Structure formats: C-alpha cells, structure tokens
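for the writeup, i need someone to sanity check this before i put it in the appendix. the sequnce is what the collaborator sent (i think, or maybe the updated version? ugh). structure was predicted straight from it, no edits. if anything looks off just tell me and ill rerun, i have time this weekend
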Amino acid sequence: MFVRWIRRSALIVALLTVAAALATPPQRAAAAEADSAYVMGYFKESLSGAGNVNALHLAVSDDGRQWTPLNDNNPVLTPTAGTKGIRDPFIHRLPNGSWVVLATDIPAGGDFAKPNQYVHVWTSPDLVTWSADRLLRVNATNTGSYSWAPAVHWDPVRKAYGVTFSTVPPGYTHSVISVSYTTDFVTATDPQVFYDTGSGIIDSHVVTGVGGANYLYYKDNASGRLAGARSSSVEPGSFTRYTEGVAVNRCTEAPTLVKSLTSSAWMLWGDTFCPNARFDLWEGDLVSGQWSQVGRQSYTAPLNAKHNTVHPITAADRDRLLARYGGTSWNLLKSYNYPGHYVRHENFEGRIGELPFDPFQDAQWRLRAGLSGSGTVSFESVNYPGYYLRQRDSVVRLVRNDGTADFAADASFQRVAGLADGSWSSFRSVRYPTRYLRHSSFGLRTDEITTAVGRADATFDVVQ
C-alpha cells in the first residue's frame, strides 16, 4: 500500500508540474530561430489493409511539398493507452516552444462509430523526447458518440487551449464540431458545440490571427467539400461560412492549412478515401478563400500517409529529427508526365503505376552503386532483394542478379539531368549509351529518345 501511495504521489506531482508549465504559457524567446522547414504527422493505410498502421509517423520537408518520411516510414510513436491505436494526429507547438500531439483513439480495423470520450496526448520539449501516451477526456458529457480528429488552437479570452473535434452531441442526429478547453492537456472542460451547419461536418482545423480574423476549415458532408468559416473571435458559435471551399470528389476530407514560409500564400491539404491514402493539395489565399489545385509534379506525400497534420519548424528541429530517426533506406521514382504514377514491378515486368496500389512495396527501390562500376546506379527491389531492373531487347523486367558482367551492364544506368526538366533525372543505359529508361504505354523500356514525348517519358523524380 505504501509503495502504491508513493507512486501515486509521484504521478500527481508530475502532472501538476506539467499543468504549471502550460497554464500560462510564455511566448517563445524573441531570439528564437525562425521557422524554415516543416514537420508532418500522419498514420498509414493501404488499399488492401496490409499497410495499415494506426500509430504516429513523422516526415520533414523544406518546402512543405516534397516530404522525407522519418524512421524508414515506420512509427515514431506507438500508442499504448486506450485502444492502443490512433488516427487523425494533430501536431501543435505551444507558445513556450514545446509540442503536443493529439489523435483519435481507434485501433487498426476498429469500429469508427464506437462511442469514445477520449483522445490520445503526447507532449515533447523538442519533437524527439516524448512523454508517455495518455488519454484526455474531451467529450465527458457525451457517452454515446465518438471523438474524432482533435485539433488545437489558443483561446486568449479563456487563456486555455481549445481542442476541437467531431462528434454527435446528445440530442443531435448529425455530427458537429465541438470544443473542450484545457490548460494542461491532462484535464479538459465539458464539451460545447463550436460550429454546426445543421448537417454533418467533420475534421476541423482552426487558424487564428490572420488579417485580424480567425478561420475554421472542415469537411462539409452535405457538399462533399472542404469548406471555410471565419470569425473575429474564437468563441463557440461565432463562425460564419465564407467559402464553399474545394474537393476533388466527395471522398475529400481532413483539411490541413499550412502557411508558406516564403510567400503570403497558404496551402490546403485534403485527404481522400476513394482511392484511399492519397492527398490533394491546393494553394491560395486564406482570407479570400480562393484556392487553385496544385499539380502532382509539385508535391509528394509520404507513401501510404493518411490524414496529415503539418507544422512549421526550425532548421535545428529538422536536423534533430533526421539525426534521431533518419530518413528512408529506399526511394520512389515518380513519372514526370504521369506524376501520380511511379516506377514499379508487376509480375516481374517493369512499368509505371498510379499510387495507391498493393503491394505498395513494388514501388520501393534501393538505388545501389551501379553493378557495372563507378558513376552508375542500379535499381534493387525492396520486396525482392537481389532482384534488379534489367533491360534486355529494350524491355525492362525485374530479374535476379546472376553475378555476370552481362547482367551488370544490362542493370546499370548513368543518372543524368532530366531530359524534360533538368531538376528531375533521366537514366541512360550502360549497355546502350544512346538509350534511356522510359515508359511507353506504361511499360518500362530503354529507347533512343528523339521527341518531346520521349523526353517526358524518360524523366523521373527520385523522391522519399
């Protein structure tokens, strides 16, 4: 009994320490390094479900468009509380410079509609040292509904953090955005309805203090779009829709707003569940609510990522994350003129295919030092180690390395500036130096390139 009392007392002291640190958060030091990069959080799913991972993954980017998954795209935080699974993570830097991650409490294969009053919480001083996973009860008076997709904003009147989330309140027949308030991410107030359109809405993101206004983006189930509302305050019930927003199809959801670090533009990410594990991206003006879709040549989300969260970070933050977790040991090769398509093998034939697909590992390659010698590169399959892309009679297949000089010459390429875009890459055959790796009718070949179409077919981006 005495030992249990000591442990309980130590836990209470720890929680009180957290509460004291967060209750009245100081501003970041004026001399703090300026943000120059981004961190993304996400969980993972694949079409077949084989790639489903309900844990927190992280990626970093210098421009908010091209992303490097950390830890070889494996989890950085694995939930241990509640259902021991998460979806819909949200990363937020607190005014004192520390970090908090919240997430929905659902395991892989779990029942989405199952009532749950809790969300997951982790805290960190530096993005690499993390607290234990714990649950925050945000939906205390609502025992009959879920608590989906938590997001965080600061309420200066309450001097507390607002945690918005999707739920069906007691007496309602449709989902709304509710809010509860916390000063310490240990306890929270009873929920209030934050925004209600009269029909189902989910997936909130609140951005404060832009041009004297505050903005709320959400998925409107009635229109199928990522819509926007704004208010001069962050008071529940004060927001008014000001733009119908955007969508690629009715499966678009999970709006994530990101301010450019180099211009006045904003980015708006949207997830989709048909097909699953694919992102669309828009760029535009948050104040006017005008958005233009960004072409897939210009961005690459982490493989199999779902429901992302993006936050600016410093170069030191980025470097610390990379030093702690590392990037990936493999790459994807994105097609220039079919930028949703990636080099893959299928039944041992080389081709390009549109992600998402399964097995997704068919698109993962280890770019090895070329089998034919210095200055060349060879493409080894991740899910068939020892097998390489090899050209023979101009057709490219996935073939087991037999150790011969002939195989080495056929499976080696010189990486050069992209024939259609010098910032991308093209790959010249070692065996036939006038031929380049290209796709034609989605199959991979090596051909001499004489046309603009051929140059585009032979240009790839090495990503992830």
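Residues 194 and 464 are 38 Å apart (CA to CA). Confidence is low (pLDDT under 50) at residues 1-21.
thx in advance!!
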